[in-house]
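User: Here's a chain of 121 residues. Predict its fold as tokens.
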Amino acid sequence: MHTWDAIGYVASTLVLTAFGMKSIIPLRVVAMCSNLVFIIYGLGLGLTPVWSLHVALLPMNAWRLVEAFGGAQAAGAHVLRQAADDDGLGQHDFLVEEPGGAEEPFHPFRNASSFAQAITG
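Assistant: Prediction complete.
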């Protein structure tokens, strides 16, 4: 068996292992390892479709791993707060005036049950 064949089998085994996993964090770690090994394999043999696919998949798996740890939600909330501060938006910009003059925070699904009832009859 040649070295490149062995590397290809290792990468393929990592993909198969990832598909059999139920826990998301170990799955993403194994998927990222398979991406790295496939990048090495594809570059070593000049297989552009192989290495370019895994170059694209690697940051996707990394982002999903960050999300699984809860970091993306915290980072996303920080970005939204920063954007609101930069644009001069405050909480009052997201208040909706209700009949009778009262203001309540905007909620996109406030009337969801009446909307669903209207659709279903």
